[in-house]
Amino acid sequence: MSKQTQVKPSLRFGQVVIGPPGSGKTTYCQGMQEFLTHLGRKVVVVNMDPANEGIPYSCAVDVSELVTLDDVMEGLKLGPNGGLLYCMEYVEANLDWLEEKLKQYSDCYFLFDCPGQVELYTHQSSVKNIFSQLAKWNFRLTAVHLVDSHYCADPAKFISVLCTSLSTMLHVELPHVNVLSKMDLIEQYGKLAFNLDFYTEVMDLTYLLDHLAADPFFKKFRHLNEKLAEVVQDYSLVSFVPLNVQDKESMIQVLRAVDKANGYCFGDLEERNLQAMMSAAVGADFQFNSYPFLIVVVTHGDSSGLMPNIKIYRRCSLTFNQPVLSGCKRGMLKPVERLWKRK
Fold first, then answer.
1. Does residue 342 belong to any structural domain of this protein?
2. Cβ-proximal residues to 249 (8 Å cutoff; 6+ apart), any chain
3. Which of 144, 218, 227, 270 has a CB 3.0–4.6 Å from the CB of 212, allowing a cystine?
């Protein structure tokens, strides 16, 4: 008898976009969909929010076809929060529907636009279970947690954001990237007490506590705030990537962090060169500093039918100056001899 071999499904990469209401999740999905499409990735956006109406992006899978918040609120006499919790429990109970929808798309990059209720990611288990099932279906996902940058202007709110972000990271149990969204609007909320790096890298929070102590209302809560800050610093997990969806360089920084977190950047090398080619089209030098390969684009100042030379160097502790790959004509990459040696 011949043994029937079972073909293991290929890996599918993507992002689950989470965060509080108004943090810009849908806008992020729209912008990231357009950005990735320009880079050559086949993008599938999945709307996981049963209350999301007037979706601005091209949606391949919409959970509203399965359940809507309005129907649940009307039928079960629930409020918005209780209704949304029920909706996500209903989705969890009908994951076979979601699986059939996702099976239609292979070799694609997925963006999951998730609901904005904070309890779903800090306490309730339905969304966590859905993410776990996606992992069993061979999805390699990064949780992109969006936080409105205006919280940086208020020390008390920023400490609250840090606690929420940490709780979400520990509960969701996915590779995690925290993002400060709407950076183009941050100046409208007032001058920051510290440089932006203080907030993105979550540096010594005692300085932030000193600002809180200056407020008579928060002065009596100093001990509580100190303990909350200690929890955040003891775990040392929370940091942020600033994002302006309208800025290409800002989108690249977020995409680098996401691709590194879910392992997409360590996949097919030729596919990873798309970003370099896009930069070359406008005569720019582009480098992936956080990738295992350094991509250097050498342009020639014209836009003829030939693509610019692309040289790729491996990042490691070896002494080398020779490219791993080089190419000159469109769509062609030729291997060259590896000449580096250890010291």
1. no
2. none
3. 218
